[in-house]
Write a structure and sequence with these properties.
single chain; two-stranded antiparallel ribbon; two-stranded antiparallel sheet; 6 strands; mainly alpha
């Protein structure tokens, strides 16, 4: 009985690879340091004094009594806000990013996601050529870990708004959007499957049937699992929480998209790619709305055609592949969006030149350095939502029994897992102690396999398809809804330059 089999080998091999490769190669560092990103440098105090005509203070250098070395005393002075300053630029290096806030978390999420994708790809290839029904798919554990890490990081970033006394507006925005998404989710979970085919109703029916049968086999009297209304309410609460976590990543994405379009007015192909990139999540949302997607493409026969445009299997495959294309396109365009964010330092100074009054040199430099300091935070807000959508779709495909191919799924060969002593090759007679040990081991293995089979009767493919199908669709929905809200704000409530 090989419950783990090749899956365990693949996992152990890649754990070893991570330990060997991680110190020498990091995809996260490559995105920040090898894609041509540039950052803006603030002028020194001496340059600011010279441009503003501020005389140098006497006694600027003094002795630090603690160590006896001559050091430059930090001084604060005022300069005009409309001071004509040209900021210098430099390429981002790995020595610059290692000190940024949340860099370690960003590096771990991106690199672990890369390894998880490789493990998942190898596992899917292995199962395609050697389909074994009863082998545990450990690549699902890798996918689940990526989803957990992404959710945890988004929660950690959102909690920062509740800890700071200066973030009253952000805190209120999170609460309001969370409640709005809760209301929307409570309406969506009761939408019939003939309109929105997320499969929640089918999942509940199959789970109810399997759980009742399992409890009856165990001799436990029960009145059935939890009420459907209660389950749907908790699902809606989780949807509201996820929507609140996606709010500021969506607003940040909209700001970067708005600025990127402004910077590439003369590059029509790039502008088209950026708009396609922004609209793809909306296409994903539509692919789960049955009257305008599945019914239209797989059931309706147009004039001059003998069959529908595609089969249900092809439709399922295209829906999954569209998610991968959307995520891949976002990752390819990420340097452009990050450069648009870094250009905020330049935009801030240009806006400041239009203002009257004076500003301290410390505040002036903080306006520039804070942009680069939060680069990894912004990158996490950009990547974490799309990685959650990607790996939820992986789990939706594998646990839901779907296929990547454009043909019906290959029949899965039944693998006999009953362990019989008669089927084992005859060897030299065993001692009584060895026979007892082998019998105990076989009994433990049989009990474990029986428990696993009982759980499979409860958590069937229909149950997984409903859970992860809805999770995938909802993550795509809030991904697009939050970005759309941000674009609406940028278009109608900010000054266009």
């Amino acid at each position: 009985m090989a419950l783990l089999g090749a899956q365990l080998v693949i996992t152990l091999v890649f754990v070893s690879i991570i330990q060997k490769v991680s110190p020498h190669f990091s995809l996260a560092k490559w995105f920040l340091c090898s894609t041509g990103l540039i950052r803006y440098l603030h002028p020194t105090d001496e340059d600011l004094r010279l441009l503003a005509g501020v005389p140098k203070e006497k006694g600027g250098k003094g002795k630090d009594k603690r160590n006896g070395h001559s050091t430059e005393k930090s001084s604060t002075f005022h300069i005009p806000r409309n001071l004509d300053i040209t900021l210098e630029t430099t390429n981002i290096t790995q020595f610059d990013v290692v000190h940024l806030r949340y860099f370690t978390e960003y590096q771990w999420l991106i690199d672990f996601s890369l390894y998880s994708i490789i493990v998942y790809t190898i596992s899917e290839t292995y199962h395609y050529f050697i389909p074994i029904k009863d082998e545990v798919n450990l690549s699902m554990l890798w996918c689940l870990l990526v989803i957990f890490f992404a959710f945890k990081l988004l929660a950690s970033l959102t909690v920062q708004y509740f800890k700071s006394d200066e973030s009253i507006g952000e805190r209120s925005t999170c609460i309001v959007t969370g409640l709005v998404y809760l209301l929307i989710a409570m309406m969506i979970v009761i939408v019939p499957e003939r309109i929105l085919e997320v499969g929640l109703n089918t999942a509940y029916e199959k789970f109810n049937e399997g759980a009742s049968k399992f409890l009856a086999e165990q001799g436990i009297s029960n009145s059935g699992p939890a009420s459907k209304v209660v389950l749907l309410f908790f699902i809606a609460v989780f949807c509201g929480i996820l929507g609140a976590l996606f709010t500021f990543p969506g607003l940040r994405m909209a700001k970067m998209h708005f600025d990127s379009l402004r910077y590439c007015k003369d590059r029509k192909m790039l502008k088209l790619l950026l708009n396609i990139n922004f609209a793809l999540p909306f296409v994903l949302v539509l692919l789960w709305i049955k009257p305008i997607s599945r019914d239209y493409l797989t059931e309706r026969v147009f004039s001059g055609m003998n069959n529908p445009i595609m089969t249900p299997e092809i439709f399922e495959s295209i829906r999954l592949m569209t998610i991968i294309v959307a995520v891949f396109l976002r990752m390819i365009l990420m340097p452009i969006y990050l450069q648009a964010y870094l250009n905020l330092a330049y935009d801030r100074i240009e806006e400041q030149k239009k203002e009257a009054g004076r500003i301290t040199n410390v505040e002036f430099k903080q306006k520039i350095t804070s942009i680069f300091y939060y680069l990894c935070v912004v990158t996490l807000q950009y990547t974490a939502p799309i990685l959650m959508c990607l790996f939820l779709s992986f789990m939706y495909k594998s646990l839901g029994g779907l296929s990547w191919s454009w043909s019906s799924s290959l029949p899965i060969e039944e693998c006999s897992v009953d362990l019989e002593l008669n089927s084992m090759p005859t060897e030299s007679p065993l001692t009584e102690q060895e026979a007892t040990t082998d019998a105990t081991f076989i009994q433990v293995a049989q009990n474990f396999h029986l428990s696993l089979q009982n759980l499979k009767q409860v958590f069937t493919e229909d149950v997984y398809r409903g859970i992860f199908g809805f999770a995938t669709w909802w993550s795509c929905f809030v991904w697009f809804a939050s970005s759309s809200l941000g674009m609406f704000y940028q278009s109608y409530f900010t000054n266009k330059t």
